[in-house]
Amino acid sequence: MELDLAEHPELHYKTGDHLAVWPINPDAEVERLLTALGRSRQQDIPTTIKPLDASTKVTIPTPTTLATIFRHCLEICAPVSRSIVLSLADFAPTDAAKSYLLFLGRDRDTYSSFRDRHALVLSPALLHP
Fold it and tell me: Where are the domains of the chain?
């Protein structure tokens, strides 16, 4: 990758310097997710993130807002990974839901098949035509 700093003479690059790229989720996708979760009205309310376990470090700057979390801290446009599906099983509202999440998350082929079958159904464009 080439980085042209000609328009910014105050910046100097030296060997070993690093460039950080901080992607953000598109505003339309953030709005769709907030709407789908029924949280549009709470999107700008300051929220403090606290770990359930004191030994766990919070990696999200806090206090923050739902809009900031969805825009800058989470990848909301990609399919949910199997590891996330497995971790969500701990928060399932019923034993049946937990069993299903574990079933999906433990087998790569089962998860891939589910994701491929439901890719269009989960498309944000279909949530709000």
Answer: 23-78, 79-129
User: Does 124 have pLDDT greater than 60?
Assistant: no
For residues 115 and 93, what is the distance between their CA atoms, to the nearest angstrom? 21
pLDDT of residue 96: 93
**Per the structure block, which two tokens stand in for 128?**
């709000």
Q: Which residues are CB-contacts of 39 (< 8 A; sequence separation ≥ 6)? A: 66
For every residue of the chain, which 3-state class applies, written as one string? Answer: CCCCCCCCCCCCCCCCCCCCCCCCCCHHHHHHHHHHCCCHHHCCCCECCCCCCCCCCCCCCCCECHHHHHHHHCCCCCCCCHHHHHHHHHHCCCHHHHHHHHHHHHCHHHHHHHHHHHCCCCCHHHHCC
Q: How many angstroms separate the CA atoms of 102 and 113, rounded?
A: 15
Euclidean distance between CA atoms 79 and 127, whole angstroms: 16
CB of 40 within 8 A of CB of 31?
Answer: yes
